[in-house]
Amino acid sequence: MLGIDNLNPFYNEGLKDARLQMLQKTAGFEFIQGDIADLAWVQDLFARQEFGPIIHLAAQAGVRYSLENPHLYVQSNIVGFVNLLESAYKRKTPHFVFASSSSVYGTNTKVPFTEKDNVDHPVSLYAATKKSNELMAHVYAHLYALPLTGLRFFTVYGPWGRPDMALFKFCKSILAGTPIEVFNHGKMLRDFTYIDDVVEGVVRTMEAPPAQGPGGSSGDGFAPYRIYNIGNNEPVELTRLIAILEQKLGRKAMQKFLPMQPGDVSTTYADVDELSRVTGYRPHTPIEAGVDRFVQWYREYYRV
Fold it and tell me: Which of 6, 174, 182, 250 has the highest CB neighbour number within 10 Å of its CB?
C-alpha cells in the first residue's frame, strides 16, 4: 500500500506528521512525498510503481479558502486530477475511486440530495473544481473504459481531521473561553458524517468497481462510471452540534452570531440509498457518539 501527499502547509504540519508516523507503523505501508500537479513527477511515479486500485483523496480543500487562493485549487484539483487520470488509464488501473463533495449540490433546495439531482450551479470555486472532476472522470470512463467512482462526501468529522473544520475550531475556542463564530445565526443544517463511516464506504466502493452497461449515474448510461453520496443521512442543526459539544466538554460556548458567508450553503442532506443498494453501506455513528469520540481524542492529543 502506497500513500502520497505533498504535505503542504495549508494547516498545522505537526498534525500531518503525527498521522504519518502512525501510518508508517502499519506493515506493508510506504509513503512518498510528491505533488500530483507536477506532471513529470506523476509520470515518473507511474513508470516506477505497480498499482492496483487507486483511491484519490488529494485536493486543496476548504470552501472559504478557495475565495482567497483560487489558483491553488486549479493546480491541485484540476491539473493534479487530470495528471492522475492520464497515468491511470495508460497503466490500465482496475478501479479509480476519487473524492468529490456535497458542495456540488450548491443551493439545491430539494432534500435529501440524490445523485441524479442537477449540480450545475456551484456557489464556490472549490465546488466547481469538484464538479469538474466528475465531468473529467466521465470522459475517461467513456473513452478508455477506465472504471471510475466518485464519492460525494458530506461534512466529514472525527479524530485526526482538519483543524479548519467547525468541530476543531469550536473545541479550541470553548476550552479557551473565547467566542465561536456561528454563521447564518446557527440556522445551518449539516449531514455530519463520522470518519469511520466514511472509511467503510470508501473501502466498500473500492471493492465494487463499476462495469460497462446501463445503470448508476453515468451520463451516457454505459461508461464504467458511478457517483455516490457518502453521508450520515441525518442532518443536524449547527445549534444542536454546539449543544452536544458543550455537554461533552462540560463548558458553555460564547457564541458570536454572524450572517451566511460567501460560497456557503444552508443545508446538506445525503440520500445514500444508491450506495447502500450497490455495496450494503449504511452509516451507523450517531452525532452524539461521534462528537464524544472526537472530544476524547482532542483532549488527549492537545492535552487540554
Answer: 174
Rounded-to-integer distance, Cα 199 and Cα 99, Å:
12
Longest dimension (CA), the chain: 57
Cα–Cα nearest to 8, from 172, 198, 162, 194: 162
Over residues 37-83, the pLDDT tens digits come to 999 999 999 999 988 999 999 998 877 788 888 999 999 999 999 99
- Give the model confidence (pLDDT) of 268-288 as tens digits: 999 999 999 999 999 999 999
Residue 271, amino acid: D
287 grid coordinates: 452525532
79 DSSP 8-state letter:
I
Single pTM value for the model? 0.94
Angle 287-302/166-176 helices, nearest 10 degrees? Answer: 60
| Closest by CA position to 212, among listed 148, 155, 167 | 148
Per 3-state DSSP, the chain is made up of helix, strand and coil in percentages (nearest 5) of: 45, 15, 40
- Using the 8-state DSSP alphabet, how is residue 186 labeled? G
Task: Please identify every residue annotated as catalytic.
Answer: 126
pLDDT for 13 equals 67
